[in-house]
Specification:
Number of helices: 10
Radius of gyration: 19 Å
CATH topology of the largest domain: Phosphoribosyl-aminoimidazole Synthetase, Chain A, domain 2
Mean pLDDT: 96
Shape: globular
Largest sheet: 7 strands, mixed
CATH class of the largest domain: Alpha Beta
Order of helices and strands: EEEHEHEEEHHHEHEHHEHEHEE
Length: 323
């Protein structure tokens, strides 16, 4: 469907990242030491509280700028609301998004809103990055160690919440994770020479990891037992609270990788499915040279954040999930 958007000849020389090598955001060079990062993301409510929905949607949209190694400058709001929505609700959605952008050091500079029977909110985000320090999905190098900066489980928990089955404390934990910016994670990644990175969102861990493998021509070995999970995720997953995207994501990865994807039969069923579950405002997935792995963990700790080493980069473009 995107073929019509791709230029028949060579892309513009200042378009450093675009549809030709699709990544988390587009990057356009303005000069030898400055490029802009541009992305857009929006979605329907994932929680009932309007402020929280706006803030989570903003964090999720800005995450693509961080996944490219950039910093947020400003954003334009993109929204659709039913006519029957009160002004108070819409105001809170916008306030949540604005305050989260301010936390990132940016501002809301405008936007566009339409009437829509299904509410939607998000941002078109502009950031900046040095042209020589862009993080890309194709930056994996064999032998590097692989890290994840947030636990998995937001998709399962949000789906359970819609079913009225998520305990209040479990939902609160998921919301706190979704609200946490990947700003600190990308600061650590840049400080340690990371080249390959992406953020985990709608395609799930396997889907986004697969994009990195295909773009890099290198593979990933992931340890299922090392994957961090939000509290309550296992119980809700085992109870079957999967989003509609989970099975679609897995079918897509299976179609792309076929026998190049192997999951150890000893991996618990719920965990094998969780690998394909959609995440909202998930963590940064990145790889770093083995000599820097310990420093990465220490730097996260100094920031009061956690990260988890979950695997390694292989020379062959495969995905292996071990127990």
């Amino acid at each position: 469907m995107l073929a019509a958007l791709k230029p028949a000849g060579r892309a513009h020389p200042d378009l450093l990242v675009g549809l030709g090598a699709a990544d988390d955001a587009a990057v356009w060079r303005l000069g030898p030491d400055l490029a802009i990062v541009e992305t857009v993301d929006f979605f329907p409510p994932v929680v009932d509280d309007p402020w929280t929905w706006g803030a989570v949607a903003a964090a999720n949209a800005m995450s693509d700028v961080y996944a490219m190694g950039g910093e947020v400058l400003f954003a334009l709001a993109v929204a659709g609301f039913p006519r029957e929505f009160s002004k108070a609700i819409i105001t809170e959605v916008f306030r949540g998004g604005s305050e989260k952008v301010a936390e990132a050091g940016g501002v809301i500079a405008g936007g566009h809103t339409v009437v829509d029977p299904e509410p939607k909110y998000g941002l078109c985000v502009t950031g900046r990055v040095h042209p020589d320090r862009i993080l890309i999905k194709g930056g994996l190098a064999p032998g590097e160690r692989v890290f994840l900066s947030k636990p998995l489980g937001t998709g399962v928990i949000a789906t359970a919440a819609k079913d009225g089955a998520a305990p209040a404390d479990v939902l609160a934990g998921a919301v706190a994770s979704m609200l946490r910016l990947n700003r600190g994670a990308v600061d650590v990644a840049r400080a340690h020479g990371v080249r390959g990175a992406t953020d985990i969102s709608g395609f799930g861990l396997l889907g986004h990891a697969g994009e990195m493998v295909e773009a890099s021509g290198a593979g990933l070995e992931l340890a299922a037992s090392a994957l961090p999970l939000l509290p309550g995720t296992r119980a809700l997953a085992e109870a079957g609270h999967w989003s509609g995207g989970m099975k679609r994501n897995r079918r897509h990865v299976d179609a792309v990788f076929g026998p190049r994807l192997t999951i150890d039969p000893a991996v618990p069923g719920f965990l094998a499915s969780l690998l394909s579950e959609a995440e909202t405002s998930g963590g940064l997935l990145f790889s770093v040279a083995p000599a820097r792995a310990g420093d990465v963990v220490a730097d996260f700790g100094r920031r009061g954040e956690e990260c988890w080493e979950i695997g390694s980069v292989l020379a062959e473009p495969v995905i292996r999930v071990s127990r």
